Amino acid sequence: MKKILFVLVLIFITNLGCKKITNGGGLCACSPISYDTSLGLVIKNSADVDLLNPKTTGFLDKTQIQLYSKDASNVIKQINFDIRQPFTYTNNLKMDYYQLVSSDISHQAKSIDNTFYLKLGDKLYELNLKVNNQMVEKLLINKTDAPKELPNVNSQYLSSIYTLKI
Fold first, then answer.
1. Predicted model pTM
2. Which of 60, 65, 86, 89 is deepest in the core (most CB within 10 A)?
3. Which phi and psi angles does 137 have, rounded to 5°?
4. Long-range contacts formed by 53-58: CB under 8 A, 24+ apart
5. Digit-coded pLDDT (tens) for 50-72
């Protein structure tokens, strides 16, 4: 009796711990990995120094950064963002810069005509995004194409990271 109870408890715990993606079709370990659409922005100065890195003299603290949109009445709506640390994606691919990341902005970008605002200290930038499926295809900063940080990468996640030089 104890063995049967133990097996039932084990099956119950395993079932709760396994998160199956319903549209994946496979078992939990075989479910596809999906990434949320997000914009990544590396902010550098003209000498390619990472301005989001706390070790950089004069770096931009999160409190000095604002990301927002305006509605039809010019009411400001703050957009959530985070500062992501450098990371290693694969053995051969490494992101050496901190990034400003926001999935909220990419969800709100219905077309490239939607304008968002990025305030870095006392400088204001206009952002326009073209989002297609799970990827930010294009970023305009002050109506100019922003370069991709890793232009030759074949990954939806990494190809949504852009560079802003100030």
1. 0.73
2. 60
3. -80, -30
4. 53/97, 53/98
5. 999 999 998 999 999 999 998 88
